[in-house]
Write a structure and sequence with these properties.
globular; alpha/beta; six-stranded parallel β-sheet; Immunoglobulin-like
């Protein structure tokens, strides 16, 4: 078995390894996001098979068994999930695949000096012990004056989405320290986070269509490259199963997530950052049409030079021009930072940090 296949197998098995083969019922929440008035989080309730002690704890055979367990794990429909955030409580029901979304009104105030808040989840099932879990929900500070929403692949981290095989190799095979961040990304995002004052503490949220199984790798990548870690990485569950061996289509995933995030803080203006390789310009232009007074700028990293693609992006730029929002097709982080400084979104010191990063 080649190293490539072994590593793919290890990655696919990783989400199953937390239970050490015990199996059973699981409630798996993802990090949440919200405001002082509302919180949002999502997750899944499912059942997975038990391995026992017959298969060795480590090695290819164990990874293969965990992949099979993942394929055959069964989402639990119509299960009530009770979520507690401080004194706020909400109960939701899973869909036919076991997924749930929680939209919780914050009727009892949360501590104002805290941005990360502990949420507890409880599931009661017939004839088994209750299932418990917890996650964290990020609430931006009240004084935040800008929201930054960014794509990840080919925007922050080079993956080569235009070449599918190369993208899969980088996504699943390369380790976090081997993945390449675009020069100046860390400095530009830090400048946006700090604002002109240097202490704005603006929230940065990251949206991706990748699977939840690469979540830990992304966190490690952000830390290694000193990129400001956002309060949440909105990925998606690919929904791989025996009946559906390929990832689910999620054409509107990014659009829906951005809508949710904008709705949470309807008073905050926003900056959107993406790349030219797939559908970011189209999705972001659609967002600008729906929120014309809130989107301050759209930054699109140029990842390929196809005349027809560049022409399509230019048409989108002209299409949203009447809103006052600039769509900037940029070759690098410096071009984005220069525009942001002229728009008053970052300070001169932040721009100089980006310049220095590109000269290293």
């Amino acid at each position: 078995m080649t190293g490539f296949v072994r590593r793919l197998l290890r990655i696919a098995a990783r989400p199953m390894q937390r239970d050490r083969g015990r199996g059973g019922y699981v409630v798996h929440p993802y990090r949440g996001y919200g405001s002082r008035h509302e919180a949002f989080l999502m997750g899944r309730v499912f059942r997975q098979a038990t391995l026992g002690e017959v298969i060795p704890r480590y090695g290819v055979l164990r990874d293969l068994a965990d992949v099979v367990r993942r394929i055959f794990r069964h989402g639990l429909p119509q299960v009530d999930v009770r979520v507690s955030l401080g004194e706020n409580v909400a109960t939701v029901t899973t869909d036919r695949d076991g997924y749930f979304d929680v939209h919780m009104a914050i009727e009892h105030p949360l501590p104002g000096e805290t941005t990360w808040h502990h949420a507890e989840l409880h599931v009661v099932l017939p004839d088994v012990e209750p299932v418990h879990s917890f996650t964290e929900v990020y609430i931006p500070p009240a004084e935040a004056d800008l929201l930054i929403i960014s794509d990840i692949d080919d925007t922050v981290m080079y993956t080569g989405v235009a070449n599918k095989l190369r993208m899969l190799h980088r996504l699943f095979v390369k380790r976090a320290h081997q993945r390449m961040a675009f020069p100046g990304v860390a400095e530009f995002y830090q400048a946006l986070h700090d604002g002109r004052s240097g202490d704005a503490r603006r929230p940065i949220l990251y949206v991706s269509r990748g699977p939840w199984s690469i979540y830990e790798m992304l966190e490690e990548f952000f830390q290694l490259n000193r990129i400001p870690v956002g309060p949440i990485l909105f990925l998606r569950e690919w929904g791989i199963s025996w009946r559906k061996p390929w990832p689910r289509r999620a054409e509107d995933h990014k659009y829906d997530m951005i809508q949710h995030m904008l709705a949470m803080r309807d008073e905050l203006p926003c900056v959107l950052i993406g790349d030219s390789g797939q559908h970011d310009p189209e999705v972001y232009a659609r967002i600008v049409h729906e929120f014309p007074e809130r989107i301050r700028a759209v930054y699109i990293r140029r990842v390929e030079r196809k005349p027809e693609r560049e022409h399509a992006i230019e048409l989108l730029r002209d299409e949203i021009g009447h809103t006052g929002c600039d769509l900037v097709l940029a070759d690098d982080s410096l071009a984005m930072a220069e525009h942001a400084m002229h728009q008053g979104l970052i300070g001169e010191e932040g721009l100089e940090e980006v310049r220095r990063a590109l000269l290293r």
